[in-house]
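Q: What structure does this chain adopt?
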Amino acid sequence: RDRMIWDVEYIPEAQQDFDRLDGSQKKIVRKAIEKVRQNPLPVEEGDYGKPLGNKDGHNLTGLLKIKILAAGIRIVYKLERQGEIMVLVVIGMRGDDEVYEIAEKRK
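A:
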């Protein structure tokens, strides 16, 4: 099938998350986003996104995540399928729970 490269948008808070990273982390995050925006759909649809659903009492339905294991960074995003936009919600250097709490507030 034809691959669409999705547009990427940051909600303002995710832009702040990104701005707080250091240079090497920014590079790693940019590279991950570049890769994922080519295949951001959920894994069930054959792409990279891991759907979050309900996590530890947080309702994260509609959100997906990517983990950059080597850097300990998690990126939470949602998809606007209409315009093929990958919307970044959280870029976090923290344990899962805190990232999910923040994601739930921001979505």
